[in-house]
Design goal:
- By secondary structure, the chain is mainly β.
- Helices cover about 0% and strands about 55% of the residues.
- The protein has strands spanning about 1-10, 10-15, 20-25, 35-40, 45-50, 60, 70, 80-85, 90-100, 110-115, 120-124.
- Strands 2, 4, 5, 6, 9, 10 and 11 form a 7-stranded mixed sheet that branches. Strands 1-3-8-7 form a 4-stranded antiparallel sheet, with no helix packed on it.
- Strand 9 and strand 10 (about 110-115) form a beta hairpin.
- The protein starts with a strand and ends with a strand.
Amino acid sequence: QVRLVQSGGGSVQTGGSLRLSCAVSGDTSSRNCIGWFRQAPEKEREAIAVKPAGGLYTYYADSVKGRFTISQDNDASTIYLQMNSLKPEDTAMYYCAAGRGYIGSRGCIEYSGWGQGTQVTVSS
């Protein structure tokens, strides 16, 4: 069982920055894949930044590449998403997730847990 608790987010103007945090606890064997996802109104949830925990390879969606950065602390107990140069189209509910088996743009083969979600709103 893996538990994820998110913090951060909120409202910002275009061009601003926000950082999301996600505290992860539980079975370490069930969280070798970590990532951030988002879902805008009337759209499907999409993977925006996913990586193997402790690994070098990272998938970024084209829409956020160069602006967002996923990172973790040494034991992957906290996952971060630094978001810079925010745009109105980044407005969405953001979720962190942990699971097994990194598969790039499709995220993880299976998910062990999801954060509760946090709203990010970017105004023009």
